[in-house]
Every structure is written in C-alpha cells, then in structure tokens.
Amino acid sequence: MSDGTRENGDRDKAHTDEAALSARLQRLGEGLGQARGRAAPPPSEDPGGDRATTASGYARGFRLSSELVGGVLVGAGLGWLIDRLLGISPWGFIVFLLLGFVAGVLNVMRSAGVVPGPTPGGDLPGNRE
Amino acid sequence: MTIDPIHQFRIQNLVPIFTIHGHQFAFTNSALFMLIIVVLVSALLIGATLPRAVVPGRLQSVAEMSYEFVANMLRSTAGNEGMKFFPFVFTLFMFVLVANMIGLIPYSFTVTSQLIVTASLALLVFVIVVGYGFWRNGFRFLNLFVPKGVPIYILPAIVVIEILSFLSRPISHSVRLFANMLAGHITLQVFAGFIIMLAGFGVVGWFGAALPLILVIMLTALEFLVAFLQAYVFAILTCIYLNDAIHPGH
C-alpha cells in the first residue's frame, strides 16, 4: 500500500503521508510516556537502596555500621549542646546519648529493611497522583 | 624503608593564596584533583554530546548510559516529580564516581577519602532536603517526624527519636563514603607494603611475596566495585532523602 503512494511522486500525497507520520509519532510518544509513568513505580516497592545493599556484603556492613554510628554521634552531640545551653550537665548528655542509640538502631533496622520508613505505606510512588 | 599507609591522604599546599589570622588558605592537592574531576566530567559529557548521533558512538553511549542510569534511579525512588532534581543528583553521582575511580590510579589523590569533602556533599543534600521540604510543604514537612498509628502516650519519645534519626542522616551519608574509601586505600597500601617487605627476604621471600601480590590484585578489583557501588549508594540515598522532602508522611 505504501509502495503505491511512494511511486506516484505527487507532492500532495507526500504531504498527507508526512502528516500521518507525525500524528503517529505523537501517538507513540504519548503511549511511551504513559508506559513510562506506569512502569516507573513498581521497582521502588522494595525498600530503598535494597539492590545497593545486597550487591555486596562488604558494602552492607559499612552501611549498617555507619547508620548506627551516625545515630549515636548525633545523640551525643545534641545532648552535649543542650547541656551547654541549659547548664543541666550531665543529664542532657545521658538522655540524648541513649535516645541516639535508639535512633541508631532504628536507622539500622530501616536500612536493613526490617522496619518500614517514617512514611508507612505512603512511600510507594504507586499511590501518588 | 618505612611504609606509611596514611601518607597518601596528606593534604599538601601547592599554591598559597592568602592567610587569615594565621590560617593559611592554599590551593591544595585535594583542590587540584577536584578541579581535574570537574574538567574530566565536563569534557566527557560535552565531548560525548557534540556529535549528536542518532546511533550513539562509544563516548556518546557512555553519556547516555549514565544519564539513563541516574534518571531511572531518581524516577523509581522519588517519582516523576523528583526529576526536577535530576541535574543535582547527576552532578553528585558523576563527581563521586569519577573521584572514586581517579583515586584508584596509583599516585593520585582520593578526594572522597577526606571526611570534609563527603561531609560537605552530605550537608548540601541535607540543607536542600530541609529547605525544599519546608518551601514546598510548609509545616506539613514536620509530618515526617510523626509516624502514623503510634499510641499517643509514646508519641513524644518516638518524635524525638525520629528527629535524631533524621539529623543523623548527613553523618551516616558522609561517613559511609569516606570510611569505604579510606579503609580500601589503607588496605591496599598495607598489603602492597607486605610485598616489598617479604621480597626483601631473598628467594623464599619472593614466593612469600606472591601471596600478598595476588591479594592486592583481587583487592584492586574489589575496590573498583566499591568505588562504583559507593557512588551509587551516595546517589540513591540522595534520591531517597529528596523523596522525603517531596512527599513527607502521607
């Protein structure tokens, strides 16, 4: 069929051909965009960074230990600051160091995928827009 | 001969610039390598996109692959809305990746093995997340710290713990990259030192030295994996944190 249109070198015919092609391209583009939008959400249903952690146990170990250390350090630092500002040494340090440990353990459990993140269920892009 | 595994991380002043209150500010080897990284990445991407071929050449497919890789990562963690942060995440990823890779070349300097560099990057991400979160969501951003379905009597403790957990993000974000790079390079240096020490014992030592040599070769391969993986982890964590800024607690 298209051979027939190509054989007669009619300008008008070629023009409509081009219009049809651009319309088709646009339709394809839209379809592709929709497919992308639909295809994008599923991979994120596994807890974030999961592929990164399973790729190497070495990296996983580092990841988890830095999460714990981060929590403890922030707790200790904040406690020390509160002590200095309010002059209630050593109570702020003690309380916040312990809370920092808890936060560190929470971080570790989260990055290991044991506990969901701070946005339960909501962090799946599937239930957005 | 003494082998100092820490020597490779020493900051050297190359060109002194100015002095404030006895603190010298200079163009250091670290700054030099950062400049090299920026020039390399820019040259790669500009050079790759110049031909604009429909069928990509070798260089262009490298650029396209890295674009696709980061775009998919960002889209799958932060949704389509996260794509407005694409330039930022892509820049971070390329910078960290090239910094890690350049660091594996002997006699070069690993920028990401300096805590101050990774901490600055992590703090930049943190500030952007907090700033954009408040700008976009106002005080609804604070919902991030109030998990749903928690009994009211333990809620105050949970909120404090969530805030601490949030504040610890830049630390774990930066320490992870820094510690990986530091530990990897020290390990390599120490085992390479064993080769030299054992080789000094004569013929028996040469056979002994083969063992650490094999180990160093395997470790180098591992370090290449870690260099890529850490750049990936750094970028994907940035995406996850940005996602929190865009969609705090539904």
User: What is the terminal-to-terminal distance of chain B?
Assistant: 62 Å
Helix content of chain A: over 70%
Report the uncertain regions of chain A: 1-9, 39-54, 119-129
- The string of secondary-structure elements of chain A, in order, is HHHHH
| Contiguous runs where pLDDT drops below 50 for at least 5 residues of chain B | none
Q: Taking Cα atoms only, what radius of gyration of chain B do you get, to the nearest Å?
A: 22 Å
Mean pLDDT of chain A: 70
Tally the beta strands of chain B: 2
What key phrases describe this protein's structure?
heterodimer, A: about 130 residues, about 0% strand, elongated, disordered N terminus, B: about 250 residues, about 5% strand
Would you write up a description of this structure?
Chain A is mainly α and 129 residues long. Chain A has two domains: 2-39; 42-127, no CATH class. Chain A has helices at residues 2-7, 11-39, 50-54, 57-86, 91-111. The longest helix of chain A has 30 residues, at 57-86. Chain A is elongated and about 90 Å long. In chain A, 23% of the residues are buried. Chain B has 250 residues and is mainly alpha-helical. Chain B has one domain (7-246). Chain B has seven helices and two strands, in the order E-E-H-H-H-H-H-H-H. Chain B has helices at residues 29-49, 58-78, 86-103, 115-137, 155-167, 169-199, 203-246, and strands spanning 13-20, 23-28. A two-stranded antiparallel sheet of chain B has the order 1-2. In chain B, a hairpin with a 2-residue loop joins strand 1 (13-20) and strand 2. In chain B, helix 1 crosses helix 3, helix 2 (58-78) crosses helix 3 (86-103) and helix 2 (58-78) packs across helix 7. The model of chain B has no long low-confidence stretch (mean pLDDT 88). Chains A and B meet through helix 4 and helix 5 of A and helix 2, helix 5, helix 6 and helix 7 of B.
